[in-house]
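Entry 14. Structure prediction run on the chain below.
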Amino acid sequence: MRVPPALYAAMMQHHAHGVPHAEWHAARIPKDLVPVNARVAWEAARKVAKYPVDWNTPGAGLEFLEFHRTMMRNFLWIRPQAGLTSAFAPWPELPEWLRKLLPEDYLNACLFGIKERIAGGSADELGGFLEATGGFNGLGSNIHNIAHGLIALDEVKRHKSTPGNLADAGMDDPSTAHHNEHFWLLHGWIDNLYASWQRKNNEPHDQSPLNPMLGNEPEMPGDHMHMASAPIPVASPHDMPHAHADAAPTHAHPDPRTDEHGGSTHIHEPDKKGGSDGKNGKNGEGEKGKKPPQPTHKPTLAPALRAILRARFNPL
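Output returned:
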């Protein structure tokens, strides 16, 4: 499902100040996998991402964790700007509906591999196992990409009659995945796994809201490895807490509820005049009767690069 229009609009406004999600993924494609007709677009993406690490080389796993950590922190800052304070909390563990879509031997190997790397691996190994980077392609790895693909397939089946719910929000395309509610549930879970590793290894880390306009990208590879902040206690990977959601006061009245897939959704209670956004007016309208901006996002990547990335975001 696409995030609510007000949140989408806030994301489009503020995420423009950071490295775009799709361009970051494209920049990590190894050069020998990039078609000649897509080299110019690939080189442009690498300039935007500054110092990308090819997804099949050491360091790619850590970069994966750190980049999406920044996205999660930016999201926690942006969310209250749209009147939401506790919606889209991370999965405490993989939801049952997603587990049922995975082969049992894969799921068992995945959960064991995560636990093993939190207990005794490096952050790069954990990230590499979660995204299948740097040679981590064994049984149980790649849950990130597999989950993206499976969620996309499942949503297409569930929303055949209402395809507008998926417009600009397909989970199988990094150009649009972060406009989907499930993106933040999945990546919140992954970020909490990373926080568990950091806590286990007494590494400083910060999961607090971060203004995306502050210029928070590391200047050189590895700069992000030493963030000076107090550790946030995080439980084991199978008993994760929700993210610190109430980042700022708002005038909305959040009512997080669970959808049929175990995800957290946000529903505004109707006001006395029939509005459902906590303000006077019609459903979904603001104080002056204007509806929030509707999604107008158009993918910026060259089709050849998008095809490579979508192939990675495929299920088993």
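The longest strand covers residues 256-258.
Filed with the rest of this week's runs.
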